[in-house]
Structure formats: C-alpha cells, structure tokens
Specification:
It contains 9 helices and 5 strands; from the N terminus they run E-E-E-H-E-E-H-H-H-H-H-H-H-H. It is α+β, with helices and mostly antiparallel strands. The N and C termini lie far apart (about 50 Å).
C-alpha cells in the first residue's frame, strides 16, 4: 500500500490534514501530538502512513516518524483497538511514554486516552509487553558498557521490571521510572539482577 506521502501541507484541522502530492490532495488522519508538530500550511511535509482498507472506505493514517507508525501498528494489533483508538492513545502519550507505560504495566496512563477503558488498557500492556521489551533491550545495548539483551534475561529482566513497578507504586510516573532504571543499568552492570540495589540507585536518579 502507500508507505508515505511527501508533499505540501494544504490544510490541517483537528485529527485530519490534506497533503498535496503532485496536484492530488490526500486526506490523512493524524493524532493530536502529530498535529502539534506539523509544519505550517503551504510548507513541505512527509508523513509515514498506514492504509486502512474496508469495503466502503480507503483511509490513510499518518505519522511524522517510522517509530510512531510502528507503535500505531502494534496498538491496532490488540483486539478491540482500531485505528481511531490507536490515534487516541498516541494523542495523549509520546512513543517513549507509551513504551514505558507498557513495560511498567501502567494501564492507568493508557486509559486516559479518550475511548480507552481500563480493561482495554490492561489488555494493551499484557499483549504488547514482550514486543516492547525487545525494543527497549535494543536501546539498553547502545553505548559502551551497556547491558546486553542476553544480560537482561531471567533474573535481570525480572529485577528491572520489579524496580520500575516499585517506583510507580511510590508515585513516580512510568516514563520517569523506566528512564531512571535504564540509566542505572547502563552505568552499573552489577545492579542488573539485584532489585533492591537497582531500586536504590534509580531513586537517586529521580532527585
């Protein structure tokens, strides 16, 4: 289908924009966060798109990055989440915030999106956690001395998840909690399988 549209922003309104590509105007549905980051009318824009085909409709959903598009595709793979639900979630959460919420099991943050109930948000965290873990582990491997994906198997992976959950229980949001734990893991390999040590070091990062 259509991988992206690259043209001139002809018009933009709540949840929808028109991109002129060689004289043809494409209606592209966008999230609130994408709308906030769009260029001005008359300027060039490139949107990576997901094509939703139904018997009576051919709809494009656009994103400014491949990363956001990939998360959108993950979201709509969950039973009960359609394209509108995926856009609603990405309207209230950045890609990083969404990843951290899923990793931490923070369904409350996800359920703040319009039309996303508690049970649906819980289903998202359960079904996507393993998929998000692969991405997060890849991020942890970046830089010298970083913990590798293999290092985070078994006890180490459990310690990380428990430390993040503990921080969330203490009142910190899931995004900040995951960032703090990730920073500790990059600098302290010996803390990878020790939940208590990981939590103490992460708490220092929160201040």
């Amino acid at each position: 289908m259509i991988a992206y549209v690259n043209g001139v922003l002809e018009n933009i309104e709540e949840g929808l924009c028109v991109v002129d590509v060689g004289g043809v105007g494409f209606n592209v549905f966008i999230s609130g966060s994408t709308m906030d980051r769009m260029p001005g009318v008359g300027e060039s824009v490139k949107l990576y798109t997901y094509t939703n085909v139904k018997e009576d409709a051919f709809t494009l959903y656009g994103f400014l990055s491949r990363d956001e598009l990939a998360l959108f595709k993950m979201l709509i793979s969950v039973n009960g989440i359609g394209p509108k639900g995926g856009l609603a979630i990405l309207s209230v959460m950045t890609p990083d915030d969404l990843r951290f919420a899923i990793m931490a099991g923070d369904s409350a943050s996800i359920s703040r999106a319009p039309g996303i109930g508690k049970k649906t948000a819980e289903r998202i965290t359960l079904e996507l956690r393993d998929k998000i873990k692969v991405t997060e582990d890849d991020m942890l491997r970046g830089g010298s001395g970083a913990v590798s994906m293999d290092d985070l198997s078994g006890e180490a992976s459990s310690a990380r998840d428990e430390a993040v959950a503990a921080l969330v229980a203490l009142g910190y949001n899931s995004a900040d909690s995951m960032k703090a734990v990730r920073k500790v893991l990059k600098a302290n390999e010996d803390a990878a399988s020790d939940t208590e040590k990981l939590l103490k070091l992460a708490l220092k990062e929160m201040f």
